[in-house]
Every structure is written in structure tokens, then in C-alpha cells.
Specification:
Layout lengths: L2 E4 L25 E5 L3 H16 L4 E5 L5 H6 L5 E6 H15 L2 E5 L5 E7 L12 H6 L13 E5 L8 H7 L4 E5 L3 H13 L5 E6 L3 H4 L2 E3 L9 H4 L21 E5 L3 H4 L1 H9 L4 H12 L5 H11 L1 H7 L4
Parallel strand pairs: 2-3, 7-8, 7-9
Antiparallel strand pairs: 1-3, 4-11, 5-11, 6-9, 6-10
Helix pairs in contact: 1-11, 1-12, 11-12
Length: about 325
């Protein structure tokens, strides 16, 4: 586990209005360990929250965790909270840690999420019946590469995001091969290269994300899941002999996860975490600062705070 300790209060001054009551000094027994994952918005926004806690006098550490294993680590107190848990890729691990290991569901953001196969809009010129998944499958050969021909290639996300699309391909009997890349940056490199020459590509994408401001495109419409039936009941869906024959939720939640001891050990920090509530635009802008404007994670977090100061102050109870 990679852990980096940031100096508390080195660069942050506490500015309080006369009417605000915040503990003069934070509770003891730090540091608070905040989980970080391997995509941009999560890195920036976890640093934003960490900076806010530092401005209140807390010591903060950041611990890098696998997106599926992180929730058990939080349940065990090896880390203390995570600010960006996505339904589409983390629901099963999140709910298992909550229900079986005592991890706390620390609240749901206003943001509405989606994680799904996606094509740039120009692909419709050659496959006009999209975004229906059956139409995509009929056009599979246009997405083929030397490695996958005659089947099409689906460019999948890093494997540790928990999205193993080979199972879906098999369940829906699709003429595709799902190939995961190693990083989010590799996804966008594939998209940039294809888009430069208007070459067909189908890849994993999500919203909120800065990509939607850069490229016009469409999520592929797979059978929409209804509760857990798709993953537990083979009779549900178009393939009566298999589970997993569905897409991801089209209006997914975005949650926060916390260690069960957080509220008791650091009640003021717990109050801040409860008040943290991102919308789609705020999440997309966090990734844009790094992935488009080229800022470092730390610089992006500082700029994000400056651009959302009133909102950030409200987390601490300031008006």
C-alpha cells in the first residue's frame, strides 16, 4: 500500500465567520486515512476533502487501494473513508463490506452516474441503428483488429475496476472480444487515436467525466438491470441459460464509504464527510483540470476549492 503523509496546516489557514462554531482543535489520535483510487476525479476530490480537513487542523494520509478491495480495508479501519464509490462497478463490493463487515454507507451524492460501453457519434455513420446493443453486434467486424478478427474489439477499463466484460460478451453471445487496458489514460489515448482518423471504436466510458465535453458520443443500450435479477436469475434477460446478460444501471448512485469508528473518533471530520455532496458538473470539472488543463492533482484540488469556496465552507458549517 502506498501511503503519503501531507503536512497538516502547512498551507491552509482557517477562516471562520463570527457566527460559526467549529471545534477550536480537532479530536486527537490522527491521522485520518483517506482512500485514493486510480482515476482522476477521485484523486482530485479526495485531495479536496483532505485539504479541508487539514485546514481544520487534522493530520491526513492518503492510501492507494484497489477499487474492489478498498471497502473491506475501510471496514477494518485500515483506511477511514472514500468519497467516490460508483454503483456500476462497485455495488457488489460496497454492499458486501457494508452488510457483512460493518462498513458505513456515509451518504449518496447528488451526482447521477453511468458506466457503460460507448461509441463516438461518428460511428453512427457506418452503424446507423446504434445505440442498440444488437445493432452494435451486427456491426462487430468494423471494430475488429488483427488480434480479435473477425470479432470486434471492445476496449475495457483497468481490470481492478471490477468490470470484466468477457462475462457479458459470453452471456449475450456477442461477436466481440473484451480487452482491458491498464490505465484510464490508455482508454483516452485509444479514443484520441481513433477519433483523429474517424476510425470505429467502442470502449468503456462513464459520466460524469470530462470526455463528454470533448467528444460527442452515445452509451450502448443493453438490457437494463432490474434489481439483482440479472446477476442471480438465469431466466431473467435475453439468454435464459446465463446470468449477466444485461448492461449497467443507467442512473447509478455515487456514494461515500466510511469506517464505523469515524464518527466516534473524529466527530467533526465525520460531520464534514456527511456534508460532502458532489454533483455531475463538479466531478467533471475536477477531472478536466488535470486531464485537459494538465494540472497536478494537488494544484487541481487547490483550484477546485478556490472555485467552489462557498460550497466547501458549507461542509464545515460556515455560511
Amino acid at each position: 500500500m502506498k501511503v503519503r503523509l501531507l503536512a497538516a496546516a502547512a498551507a491552509f489557514a482557517i477562516v471562520l465567520s463570527p457566527t460559526v462554531s467549529i471545534a477550536a482543535a480537532p479530536e486527537p489520535d490522527g491521522p485520518i486515512i483517506i482512500v485514493q483510487n486510480n482515476w482522476t476525479s477521485q484523486l482530485v476530490l479526495s485531495t479536496v476533502v483532505g485539504n479541508v480537513l487539514q485546514s481544520m487542523g487534522y493530520k491526513v494520509e492518503y492510501a492507494t487501494h484497489d477499487s474492489q478491495l478498498q471497502f473491506k480495508a475501510i471496514a477494518e479501519g485500515k483506511a477511514h473513508f472514500q468519497v467516490e464509490a460508483w454503483e456500476g462497478s462497485m455495488k457488489q463490493a460496497f454492499e458486501k463490506a457494508r452488510d457483512e463487515h460493518g462498513m458505513i454507507d456515509a451518504g449518496t451524492h447528488n451526482a447521477v452516474t453511468r458506466e457503460e460501453w460507448w461509441v463516438p457519434l461518428y460511428v453512427l455513420d457506418k452503424c446507423p441503428e446504434l445505440p442498440d446493443w444488437k445493432a452494435l453486434d451486427k456491426c462487430a467486424t468494423m471494430f475488429a483488429t488483427k488480434k480479435t478478427a473477425p470479432k470486434g474489439r471492445f476496449v475495457g477499463p483497468p481490470a481492478d475496476w471490477g468490470k470484466h466484460y468477457t462475462e457479458r460478451v459470453n452471456a449475450l453471445k456477442m461477436n466481440f472480444v473484451a480487452i482491458n487496458v491498464d490505465t484510464a489514460e490508455a482508454l483516452w489515448a485509444e479514443l484520441d487515436a481513433a477519433a483523429a482518423n474517424k476510425e470505429p471504436i467502442v470502449l468503456f466510458n462513464w459520466t460524469p467525466n470530462y470526455i463528454e465535453a470533448k467528444y460527442d458520443g452515445l452509451f450502448i443500450e443493453f438490457p437494463e438491470p432490474e434489481g439483482d435479477a440479472c446477476m442471480t436469475d438465469a431466466s431473467w434477460g435475453p439468454n435464459p441459460d446465463a446470468t449477466g446478460d444485461c448492461g449497467a444501471p443507467r442512473s447509478g448512485w455515487l456514494k461515500k464509504a466510511a469506517w464505523k469508528g469515524l464518527a466516534k473518533k473524529w466527530p467533526e471530520a465525520w460531520k464534514v464527510l456527511q456534508n460532502v455532496n458532489f454533483n455531475n458538473q463538479q466531478i467533471a470539472s475536477a477531472s478536466l483540470l488535470v486531464d485537459v488543463e494538465g494540472m497536478s492533482i494537488e494544484a487541481a484540488a487547490a483550484k477546485w476549492i478556490a472555485e467552489n469556496q462557498d460550497f466547501v465552507d458549507s461542509w464545515k458549517g460556515q455560511k
